[in-house]
Structure formats: structure tokens, C-alpha cells
Amino acid sequence: MITPMIREIKQKFPGAYVATLTQPNTANILLNNPYLDEIITDDLKKESFGKVVKLLKEKQFTHGLLVWPTERAAYQMFLAGINTRIGVGHKIYEVITGMRSVDRHNYIPLKHEADFCMDMARKIGVNTDNLELEIYVTDEEKAEAKKFLINLGIEERDYKIILHTGNLGSSPNWSEDKYVLLLKEILSLQIPDMKILLTAMEMSDRFLKNVNALSDDRIIDISKKIEGLRHFIKIISIMDMFVCNSTGPLHMADALDRKCIGINCHRPMNSVKYWGILNKRSINIEVDSEYCDQNCSADKKICQFENGISVQQVTEAIKKLIN
To answer: Structural domain boundaries of the chain?
Structure first.
């Protein structure tokens, strides 16, 4: 959710040297970003701590925004002598290091996570409501992805839909049995030259067995063939549609401006208002408040998400995006 911040900071301060400090895997999301001057990575090893501090000091950064509150990065920025440092909330290490704060006030009023992140940029003089997410993929990378798919029997002319069924527990999700029902419904739509790509690494053997029982070669499991995050990003960039529960890959598809269908819980920290798809080509589906109030516990810790959104709702959304 930081790519809008990066863009808006660079546009407000075009002469500034803008860099990110992130883990190596996450850096894949930021490659080719024209608003970034440098991507600094930290592998979180003990011996790397001082190396990062030294590099930050050499670069003579004047401002540091701690978007994701981590003690390690807070101390790295402090020891590097970055004068203006801004964090989220009032963590003890932020107080100790004299860090200024952006307070989310217990997420009241609720707004999108990208908007909360932008508050940090607003703290240093950026004035914007442009929250458009961006991931940049080169033509060469797209060509690589097309070649990869062709080798799997997926042609460029095919209408390609990713159905990503997993979320690593980041939000309430359907059962795999319900995703099988969704697959059946999508297949029944008779979309010309359609291919459905399954990409979730956590798909169970039972689920894959049930998928194979459908005996339809339009469904292709590529999950074990994806070679890392950047490879996945390249593949998503040439998809026609991405269908997914609210999770990281959905936000990547959003940032790549793909047509997306997001399946969301109603509780605040999983809702469309906080985590919804932002691009205008997509559809967010959320459990309605009446169902949530009647079927989930008052504190929302017991969630009956399974029946809150129907297969038919998602199928209708797919039809709408195709047409």
C-alpha cells in the first residue's frame, strides 16, 4: 500500500532522493518504479543491522517514514541520524528514539489502508487524495510471462482467469468445497477460449483431487510452477481477470490494473472500506451487514463467512466484467 505514497512524495518533491527500506522478497513489488531512486534491502540477519545503518548514514537521508512499525527499522533510522522520523502509533521504541507519530485513532473513522499510509506523507507536506496503487512490469517481463504460459498450453488469445483460493489465514475465506462449486459455475458460463489458472500454494490434495474430477482441461494448476514473487507478478500482469479472497495477491492484481473480483468479510479490519480493490475496472463483494449481525458473534471473532457471499454473486460479477 506504499506505492501511492512513493509517487505522491516524488511529485511533491521532484528533486528529492526517494528510497525504500524493505526485505528482499518485498522489493519485487517495487522494481521498475519510476518514482524510486533506490531500493535498499535488509535480510533481517544480525550481521546486516549495522550494514544498513551505515548505508542509510552514507545517503544522508533527512526524512524516514516507518510505514510498517518494526523495532529494527526504527533503531536503524535513529542510529543513521535521520532527523525527521515518523511512525505509526506510540510504540515504546518510537518513543525512545524520539519519533514523531501518525495516530490511527483505533481506526476510527475507518478508511482504506492506502489512505492511512498516505497520512505519513501528508505529515511531511504532501496534499493528495490519489490512492491509486501501482506495480510496474516491463514489456520484456510480460513477454517472459507469455512464453511461460504458452509452454503450459495457454495461448495469448485465451481469456485467462486466475482463481486464487488461498490467503494464508489473513482474512475469513470460503472452504475449498465452495471454490469447487465456483469453478463449476465459471465453466458453465462457456466463455470462449477460457483458461482458469489455479495459483494458491496452499491448495490441499483433496481440493486438487476434486478439481481433477471435473475432467476439464480449461482448469490448469500452475501453483508449483511459479518461481517466486516477481514471477507471479509478471503472470498476473497479463491476466484478463483475477478472482480472490481479500489477500496480498489481490492487491497486486489491483496495482497491476487487472479486472478483479474481491471477496470480502464485513468486519472492519477485513472490509472493502479498509482493504477493497481501488482500481475502477473491478468489483468488490462484501458480506452484507444484516447477515453479519445475524450470524456472526457481536465481537466478530466468530465469523460465518462461508455463507455470507454466494457462488452466484461471484459468478454474476464475472459475467458483468466480461460483458
So the answer is: 3-122, 139-322
Q: Could you write out the DSSP letters of every residue in 263-297?
A: EE-SSGGGSHHHH---STT-EEEE--HHHHHHHS-
Return the C-alpha cell found at 76. Answer: 536503524
Strand order in 241-245's β-sheet?
A: 219-221, 194-198, 159-164, 241-245, 259-264, 283-286
For residue 179, give Cα distances in angstroms to 185, 186, 310, 311: 10, 10, 11, 8
Mean of the pLDDT values across residues 77-92?
A: 93
Name the strands in the sheet holding 63-65, side by side, starting at the edge strand that comes first in the sequence.
Answer: 63-65, 84-88, 100-102
Are the beta carbons of 65 and 121 closer than 8 angstroms?
A: yes
For the segment(s) 139-322, the CATH number from 3.40.50.2000, 1.20.1640.10, 3.40.50.720, 1.10.1060.10 is 3.40.50.2000
Global confidence as pTM = 0.92
Average pLDDT, stretch 216-237? 96
